[in-house]
């Protein structure tokens, strides 16, 4: 009999809870076997109390059993790193990636501008690529993609692969897990994200077509404002089906795609 799985979620803030206006410090989740619950919770607590954004004074940890019959197993998106000199070059690279998946220069620039100009949100913006309108039910919150992780027995291989590239950190592992789920959501053609961690300047553009494209810089160092945008094609799916996958479907990555390499923009795009 297989060991039971549990979805553990952590949200941490400073100055009170998120609902009461507290500053977001950290958030993470894991899908873990029952025997590793205490160890995983201890790691999440340590993360919330020792974060570069500050020490949390509000920490919420939830635990919910996962019905294994309802889990969808997926492969990870292949990872490619594009090495850029600064965030401005990185954002130009994002626009080029969006053009590779079929968007016009105008649409690509408009989507990036929406992300740059967005207020701080707890979740992501869900934007129709045809109208450029936001589609989340709550525009002050955004939409949160939850319920995803790597299969527990994949972590040794995952850590080894990322260690060789010098990127074996929580930012990358959690972002690839999320992006791999989001890319399979009905109607989603791309995702763009950079972190709200002031010490972490990397970000990514991800799609099922291109994989997880990691940029070494997508925001200036020291900036604690991040953001995420899901690019949605309303001709391919309903918003309801997309939201149901993002918010409710449990996904576990049980296959690691190979690392694709490191490139400059000119090497990758052939300029």
Question: What would you note in describing this structure?
Answer:
With 271 residues, the protein is of the alpha/beta class. The chain has two domains: 5-70, no CATH class; 73-269, no CATH class. Helices cover 29% and strands 28% of the residues. It contains seven helices and 13 strands. The chain has helices spanning 37-49, 87-100, 105-117, 155-164, 170-182, 239-248, 265-269; strands at residues 5-14, 23-33, 58-66, 72-75, 79-82, 125-128, 148-150, 188-194, 203-207, 211-215, 227-232, 251-255, 261-263. It has a seven-stranded mixed sheet with strand order 6-11-8-9-10-5-13, sandwiched between helices. The chain has a three-stranded antiparallel sheet with strand order 2-1-3, with helices on one face. Helix 2 crosses helix 3 (105-117). The longest helix has 14 residues, at 87-100. It is globular. The termini are far apart. The model has no long low-confidence stretch (mean pLDDT 92).
Outline:
With 271 residues, the protein is α/β, with parallel strands linked by helices.
Number of strands: 13
Radius of gyration: 18 Å
Helix content: 25-40%
Overall SS class:
alpha/beta
Count up the domains.
Answer: 2
Q: What is the topology, as strand order, of the major beta sheet? A: 6-11-8-9-10-5-13
Number of helices: 7
- Following the backbone from N to C, one meets helices and strands in this order, namely EEHEEEHHEEHHEEEEHEEH
Distance between the amino and carboxyl termini = 55 Å
Q: Identify the overall geometry.
A: globular
Portion of residues in beta strands equals 25-35%
Average pLDDT level: 92
Q: How would a crystallographer describe the biggest sheet?
A: 7 strands, mixed
- The parts where pLDDT drops under 50 for at least 5 residues are none
